[in-house]
Amino acid sequence: QVQLVESGGGLVQAGDSLRLSCTASGLTFSTYEMGWFRQAPGKEREFVASIRRSNAMTAYADSVKGRFTISRDNALNTAYLQMNSLKPEDTAVYYCTAKLLIFSSVSSSSSYNYWGQGTQVTVSS
């Protein structure tokens, strides 16, 4: 019933930009904190960014800070990840996720209730 659908991934050159989208259904979107994680082949899933129900509260991994921006539009049930100045090290499958408990850690994957199927981002040199 609950579904998170990512889109916007693709193959780009280093220095280019992409915008990922995550559209949610089957839940009251405005009550969930939203996050983005990524996983490269052979590596563990890592936190990228998160946003509270209010757009004023965001968090980022050090590796993407200053280059990526997370946002949300509650009227459209959609979260976004704007990725600028992409590097080959950003190559991974990017996952959208939703968290209900407001006091759980935003950087821990176990804190999140629902996950999307992932979208591939590949950055060439």
Summarize the structure.
Strands 2, 4, 5, 6, 9, 10 and 11 form a seven-stranded mixed β-sheet that branches. The protein has a four-stranded antiparallel β-sheet with strand order 1-3-8-7, with no helix packed on it. It has no helices and eleven strands. The chain is 0% helix and 49% strand.
Distance N terminus to C terminus?
40 Å
Largest sheet data: 7 strands, mixed
Number of strand segments: 11
**Poorly predicted spans:** none
Tell the overall outline. Answer: globular
Strand residue content: over 45%
Order of helices and strands: EEEEEEEEEEE
Q: What is the share of helical residues?
A: under 10%
Rounded average pLDDT = 95
Number of helices: 0
Helix and strand content put the structural class at: mainly beta
Cα-based radius of gyration, to the nearest Å: 13 Å
